[in-house]
Design a protein that fits this description.
The protein is an all-alpha fold. It has helices spanning 7-20, 32-71, 76-85, 92-101, 103-113.
Length: 114
Amino acid sequence: MPRSVNVVAAKARRKKIIKRTSGQFGRRKNVWTVAKNAYERGLQYAYRDRRNKKRTFRALWIQRINAGAREHGMSYSVFMDKLRKNNIDLSRKVLADMAMNHPEAFKAIVDKVK
């Protein structure tokens, strides 16, 4: 009896990965084994960097809040401590946006906690 392999499904699976690596350089875009490795590595980087993005944005927000607070004679840590003690629950994302784009509103918050 002849050997039966599901070439249709296997070819579709390969084609899907080749299509997803189509914009890459060299053999990564058209050689199956190289493309598969490149695609899987790309997924690993994507997974890792979705978490790293949160980390880097938080660091950026802290820098912006610190710069805004220092313009009004207060350090970041003192400012955040006074916010907590005054029960002002604003996220770092919102505070950073205020420090950058709405300095008068940020100044009002700083004056309230002083």
